[in-house]
Write a structure and sequence with these properties.
Shape of chain A: elongated
CATH topology of the largest domain in chain A: Multidrug-efflux Transporter Regulator, Chain: A, Domain 2
Number of helices of chain A: 6
Largest sheet of chain A: 2 strands, antiparallel
Oligomer: homodimer
Helix content of chain A: 55-70%
Order of helices and strands of chain A: HHEEHHHH
Number of domains of chain A: 2
CATH class of the largest domain in chain A: Mainly Alpha
Number of strands of chain A: 2
Strand content of chain A: under 5%
Largest interface: A-B, 70 and 70 residues
Structural class of chain A: mainly alpha
Chain lengths: 152, 152
DNA sequence: GCTTGACCTTATAGTAGCTCCAAGGTTTGA
DNA sequence: TCAAACCTTGGAGCTACTATAAGGTCAAGC
């Protein structure tokens, strides 16, 4: 199987497959005499595993760790649980942060309902005032939202 | 005011201030004879505006657009509303996506409650099966979570 | 006058997870 | 024989910073 066929089968871009190989997330396939990558069925499984984990928002580092357990199933799974728990907590924090953000944005949006010019735009006024005034309490909570994954 | 003082006053790193200047988000200050940046009160306002918008999760491109309206208040504010609405929608989508993700992760976590080895770890088994099976419906929704901002 | 330390400058490289492009080689079908 | 569709590598680009190196400046203390 050439890289293009694997790409179609897994709905993953060829470039991304090469990238995952370089990053050690999938094993390097055999090469044809002309240097083309020749994939086997096992690579489909490996790649799908990575893509599935990515779709669950895991980082490449986390997936590398899980892959190690996949390769050597004698290892303790406590670490797997810890990894998943950590990831759940991360996602939970992101949700909470984004919810607060959503509320702030809705409040901001309320300030301008009609289309005039920017001089009278309540949104802009609010943003400028918030930046200049000391009493702005709407952004004292940290925002940390690490990027998550692409569709699988 | 030197860059360090502005940094302390706004709780923004000096490097980041220079970066914002290079990106055109704040105006370039006058320089002393030795090349040091000399900031005025207006720069504090500009920088706080940027930081506040960042704390609301806006991208630098969005902030550039808002800054233009701030500089020229005769422009229509319809675009401001559109920008904010788009941003709210983005945040809303992120929240929905992350909520689905959270549920999937909780379901996954249920698969392994006790610490044995990875061979019998339900989490790993589930991940591997999900990757290999066709019938995995748990990751057909796209995940797009652009990074958001740091605390202000 | 000299040294020390805190400040400032620019330029460059690194982070995550890809994505895109250029310049070339290979294979397949008409 | 030729074109289209594939493949290769290497490098740059994206976001929003962060970190480092190598050097210049300035004020205080001795």
């Amino acid at each position: 199987m050439l890289i293009g066929e694997l790409a179609r089968e897994t709905a993953c871009d060829s470039e991304t497959i090469r990238f995952y190989e370089k990053e050690g997330l999938i094993s390097a396939p055999a090469r044809s005499s002309s240097g083309y990558r020749r994939y086997q069925q096992e690579h489909v499984g490996q790649l799908n595993f990575v893509l599935h984990c990515r779709s669950l928002g895991m980082s490449l580092a986390e997936i590398r760790t899980l892959s190690a357990f996949r390769r050597d199933p004698s290892l303790a799974c406590v670490e797997i649980n810890t990894l998943i728990d950590g990831h759940i907590e991360q996602v939970h924090q992101q949700i909470e942060t984004l919810k607060r953000l959503e509320q702030q944005l809705h409040a901001l949006r309320q300030r301008c309902q009609e289309g005039t010019d920017a001089a009278h735009c309540g949104i802009l006024q609010t943003l400028v005032q918030a930046a200049e005034g000391e009493g702005c309490v709407c952004h004292d909570a940290p925002l940390h939202t690490p990027g998550t994954a692409h569709p699988h």
